[in-house]
Each structure stands twice: as C-alpha cells, then as structure tokens.
Amino acid sequence: MKNILKRVICWGLAAWVALPALQAKGLNPQFQLLPQPQRVEVMAGNGFRGSELTYLVADEGVQVPVLGAIADALPRCERPGRGVRLVMTGSGVPESEEGYVLEVTKDGVTISSRGDAGLFYGCQTLEQLLEDSRELGLVIPRMKITDWPAIAYRSVHWDNKNHLDRVEYYYDLIDRLARYKINGVIWEIEDKLRYGRRPEVAAPNAISKQEVQAICRYAKERNIEISPLIQGLGHATYILKHHWELREDPNNDGDFCPADPRTYEVLFAMYRDAIEAMPYGKYLHVGGDEVSQIGSDERCKATGKTPFELQLEWLNKVCDFAVANGRTPIFWDDMPFKFAGLWYPINFDLSDEKTRRLMDFTMVDEVIDRFPKECVYMRWFYGDATLLGNQLVLDWYAKSGLKVMAATAASEGTCVLIQTPDGRLPYIKGFSEITAERKTFEGIFATAWDDTSAHLKTVERSYIAQGEFGWNPTGRTVEEFKAAHARREFGLTRPDMEFITDMEAMRPFYDAALVTAGHRNPGFAVAEFTLVDLPDPACPGAWSETFAGRLDSAKMCTPLYERACETLGRAEKRALRNRYTLEIYDCTNDMLYFPARVFLALEKYDKASGAAREQALAELSDLCGYFYDLRRDVLDSYSKTRFMSNAEGFVAGNSHHRHLASRTNNGDWVFWFELPMVRKIEAWVAEQRK
Fold this sequence. Notes:
Blueprint: H1 2-11, H2 20-23, E1 39-42, E2 53-58, H3 69-72, E3 82-88, E4 100-105, E5 108-113, H4 116-136, E6 143-147, E7 154-159, E8 164-165, H5 167-179, E9 184-188, H6 209-220, E10 225-228, H7 237-240, E11 247-249, E12 252-256, H8 261-277, E13 283-285, H9 298-303, H10 307-324, E14 328-332, H11 334-339, H12 343-347, H13 352-358, H14 362-366, E15 376-380, H15 388-400, E16 403-409, H16 421-438, E17 441-447, H17 460-471, H18 478-490, H19 499-512, E18 515-517, E19 530-531, H20 542-546, H21 548-574, H22 579-607, H23 611-638, E20 642-643, H24 674-688
Helix pairs in contact: 5-6, 6-8, 8-10, 16-17, 19-21, 19-22, 21-22, 22-23, 23-24
C-alpha cells in the first residue's frame, strides 16, 4: 500500500487509484491487455463487438496517430453506427503526456489525452481490445480505462557488436516495441554504421546514415526515441583494430588510451556521425564500462594520474562534447565503483553486516566534484536489484544529487541459443518496481548484449516484459505476464508456451556436454576446448561407465525435448500470428537436444556387440547426416532476419573478450562444439569400418 500511495502522489491521481488486483476486476479475463492498464472500471449496460465499429475520427486539430491494422482499416469520416473519437484535452486525463483515458459507451469509443503519445498508446490499447473481440468472439463491455506509465523512460538495447539484422527486421521490431509501450531504444551500432568522418571503422556491410535516419523516423512516429551508444574507453575493438596507435596495450584492441589527444579526435568524429544518423534521440551513451588496462601505457603514466583520475578526465571530456552537441550523456557506472574498491560488495550476495562493512564510499565522495553533473549514470545490475549493495549505491546517488538510470537485462548473454527469458523476468520486474518507487531515476533500460549473438527472437519476450513492468510494475505477476504475452504475441494460452521452460531445462547439458575442457561462454572469454573421447571398441562398456553422469543427464533431456516438440507443434498449428518466432524456437529445441542424441547413440554403440554394433555405427553415421541437415535449417531460419556471414574484407578484432560470435566469419560459431564433434565422429566411424 505504501508503494501505491507513493505512485499516486507522483502522478496526482489519488482519486483514481485502486489496488492492482482490483484494477481489472469485472473485465473478462480473456481480454489480456499488455501492459496491464493502471485502472479498468467496467460499467453497467451493454457493450458491443469490435466488428460493430464503423469509423474513426479525430477532433479538429488532432492528428490521428499510427494505428494498428484493425483500427487503421476503419474509415476516417463519420458514418452511421458506432465510432472511435480521438480527443486532445487537459481535463480529466492523467498528468503524463503518455497517459490516456479510453471510454467505451453504447455509442462507441472515446480516447482522450493531453499529448500525442497518450493518444497513440490509447489506440494501441484499443487495438488489443479489438483483436481479442475479433479472435475470441468477445463483447467489449462498457468501461473506462485510465492509464499512465509508472516510469517515464522505458527503453531497450540493440547491440550490433557481432551481427547485423536485415533492415526490415528493425521496422518489425519497432512495431512490436511500440505495441507494448516501450518508448526508447539505445542502439549500440558499433561498426555497422557507415561513418562518413571515420570510414575505416565501418564494416564492409555497414548500413548508411540515411537508412538509420529512416529507421529512427519510423520509430519516432511510433513514440520511440532512438539514441546511439558508441563504446569509447573500453570495449573498443571495433575501432582499435584499425587504430593500433591509440591502444593502451599494442597487443590488445580493447581499451583506448585516454591520455592521447587523438583518442578524442576519433571518438568525437564518430559521435557526430552517430548523432546525425539518429537525429531524434536526446541521449548519447558514451559507454565507459569494464575498462581493463587504463593507465598502463607510457602516455598515461607520464601524466602522473591514477586510473581513477584518468577515467574521470575522459568522462568529463566526452560529456562536455555531448552537452555541446545537444545530447544528454549516459555512462555505465561500474568503473568508478571498481576503482573505489566497491565492486565486490555491490555485485555479490553477501550478508547485510558484511555488505555494510565493505561499502565505504569515502573514495568516490572525495572526488564527487569531478563527476559531471549533466551526465546520467547508468546503474547496471542484472540480478536481483533488491540486494543491499545495489540499494546502498542507489542511496549514494540520491544523496550525491547525480542523475541515475536503472539498467536490467533482457538477455543473459551466456548461451548461443536461448537467453533464459524466464530467469530474467523477475529481475526486470524487480528493478522496475524499485525505479517506480524511488522517483529519482531518469528511466529504465533493458540490455541485450550480443556476446553470443543469440537470435533476437529468443530475447523479444524479455523486451516485451520491460514494456509491461516499465509501464505498470505491480500490475501483474511474472506468471500472469507470461499468459498475457502468449495471448498478445501468438493468440495462444500460457500452457501453449511451456516449451520455453523445457528448453531452458535442457540448456545446462547442452552448454558443456560435448567437451571435457574449455567453454564457449563469452563472459569468461571463449576458450580452447577438448572434445569428449569416443568409445574404445576393445573395451565394451568402459566409455558408458566413464560418462555415466552425462548419460543420465542426456536421458533426462529426452522427455523434455519430446514434450517441447509436442507443445511447439501444437502452438504452431494454433498460432494466429508471429509464427516465425516459433520457427526459431523449433530449431533451437533441436539444437539443444543434439548433444543428448550424440551421447545416447555412442552409448548404444559402446554396449553393443556383433551385428548390433554395426547397426549402431550406421546410426551414428545417420546422426552426422542429420546434423548437417539441422545446421542448414538453423542457418536458413536465422538468415530470414539477419546476416549470418561477415562481408568480404571484414577485419577481425583481437581483444581479450574473444566473443563466441566473432570466432568465425560465417555462421559456424553457432555450432562451436557440435561441428568439430560431428567431424570427429565421422572420422572415427570410418576408422571402425576399415
């Protein structure tokens, strides 16, 4: 109740507020509006079906916003029957420019707002009502929806570090984000922009500034503001692989030298190009996180400054540039806390007593005057944001008067196939709740790092969750959100999407089953690996004994895979839209199960004798053929929305991050363990048949 009262005070809507559990009481639960509106009041009297609406008009001087397909098909002039009317007014509507009131009466629908954004969002909610009415045969009741966002800036991350999507996918994704009331994108475009001032940085397949401008204009028309993120001090491989002279370490292209004036010549030129390419954004994200070598080269040592001082000096210079060019700078906030010895208690779940003992802000307090005040400090925390260390940092920001934005994560970034969206959802909800409660945040942001470059279709549910919980953090539980997502995205029910849970359960075995050493997790840099040994024909059963634990896990994957196949098959037949997303999940399911197929086939050979052993060899050979078909199908499916190979002339980087998706110039990084394992089995089968 305390949190609800805080939100009421913020928006000046005390007379309208009800507990979230009561807000939609009386509305048929088959209507699944996403995000959950702040308040729904169902009135007495008869409603009507969406098909009975005959026109859509706006009051004089009011521009009709971009509409969904159903509403857009309505004539724009008054006709007999029930209509939709759009009204701009400052009376009886929420304070927020994005807020709106949607009233359904016997005569039709009226959507009122004080701003263009509010009318757009009211029409998005209407579209969902019409969709449910048409698809489920529902009567839209007489009702009044009063709705506004709990968090003003609700944004997501596009990261093109290791791939480029087809242009048409960006337009489709913008439509999807706008439908769920996301209003910001921070685009880490890296070398996929054709920089006019620094053409050497652009990848051979980079898109033009004009194409990016067109995407941004399309987004602006749908109330989404796109701003650039140009990684600068660290994570600069895409720049420094072309500029050896600006590296801190000649053998590592990860970090810029902040003491070299030429660093700023390069960065400022790229900033200008990015700002011009994304002209409607208010931010310039300058990166600045996870710098590993700052202060180590002779140029930095000659200044006599500490790494902490060098970082703050760089930050002030790039922030001054941003402000001078009409942008608010954003900066990842981890490095100052790392230099101050606070990284450990902030990021680990320690006892409250130990956390408080270790959280000494003296060092950052002593240099607080050097922190640029115009900068927004992005407080990134990808786990449970209620941990005490994170909360104490937020308290420090409030005390220091610095601007802060929350950053949670839409993807885990450690698996090439699936981004554990179930695992991320509570964290997105949790940090959204904190952001809404504290009232001091500039907004919230959901990152989607491209380290393993998983297909974004496996990330979209988390993007949509940021729309849900950024708009109304307490309106639904995570499980209720999953049901609403299934309905809105596919026209399905929650049980139809259970395949995601089964696939996530297979992931731990998939990640490491085929190797005895090494890993493909980019969080720890992709390592050299050793594939598992194959059975010794002279020692039947020995291999199965050695790998008994993995065989048990492989057998546990079988019912998960079979159930996911059944659920996916049912979903693909019943889905009313977005079948391509299900196609990506389908090939993901097959890939996740492939290591289990390998182990079960090898066990069959290891325990067989005579003719049965020959049959097992034949089945292993068939399994290799199946893999090549699967590999082709995965690449065909992925390539419908993204480019799976680097263009001719692409220059690879050599930073310590060694991201999985940068290890090959074609799509074979997806099969990092599987492809060499299949080749090993093929050679081994051939040897057994000699």
